[in-house]
Sequence to fold (376 residues):
Amino acid sequence: MPDQITNYQCPACTGPLHFAPASGRLECEYCGASYSAEEIEALYAEREKKAEAAFAEAEKKPADGAWDTTSLTGDWGADREGMKAYNCPSCGAQLICDSSTAASSCPYCGNPTVVPGQFGGTLRPDYVLPFKLDKDAAVAALKNHYRGKFLLPGSFSGTSHLSQIQGIYVPFWLFCAEAGADCRFHATRTFSRREGDDQVTTTEHYQVRRAGSMRFERIPADASTKMPDDYMDSIEPFDYGELKKFSSAYLPGYLADKYDVSAEQSAARADSRCENSAAAVMAADVQGYGTCECVEKHVELKRGKVEYALLPVWTLLTKWNGKDYLFAMNGQTGKMAGDLPVSRAKYWGLFAAITAAAGALLTLLGVGSWLASCFV
Fold:
């Protein structure tokens, strides 16, 4: 066994595991967990076994009510000869690209050492959504993302901190389904009127029912654990009208992340999005009331086809005060997402200002009450 194993991820936090000669165990520098080599090898062997079984199952006809993954294929045909793979030894990312694109660093963790790997074991995408915005647009969008953020440290927004910009095709599963929804709501209308010196308020209560059916086309679920789900949700939507049949001709100059979340593992997320969207459509049709609360919902899904697509995302990695900040931009629309640091000085200054204002208001109210009592 080599002195350092960097292609295994911690089962607890997904950080890289390193072999510690002192303990003879694989240790995680992020959460402190440690494992024997036998435990990790057994875990990865089991994962590989499950992945092979899932792929074999995907080739079979789906059972009634299951998502249809029969169209997914691992046959890259002539494109395979022009593809190559890279592995990040730090965060475990597996990246693919065409033979003319060189990967010098990881778009997720910024590790400058990305080593060549063997291409294989991945499904061929059905579609690709080409980039419409270039690197300059990504930098401009990041600057715009900084604007209006009062609590942002003043030194953070300097472009000198931007250490990595990379266009990457993020893997997505696209789910199609039909939903039948039957929802019941508690709604109210409130009226007020004067009766002499009294203000009378009347609240009317209603039971409202809405039912209907709808079709969902290409509900997205990102298939990469490296890209935060909330980032991907935040930069939606993508215009699927511009999807192209996959061709490696769209890849030069960009990397593509190799999926590490299967369609089966993403199915629950797709189900939830369908059900919540169907209920939201029913709720939006309840109009003319002051309040509306869903008290019962029943959604039946007819699960359809699953497609595999690569969608364009710019990743921008900023290093500041020893920490990495990852931002993601929709490579088609320019929509940006990412967490920003907070200036402690500005935060406490704002807190003090709000506290002082609240104290002054309470003082005025107290004086007003005292004056009122003087005339009673």
About this structure: Residues 1-58 form one domain.
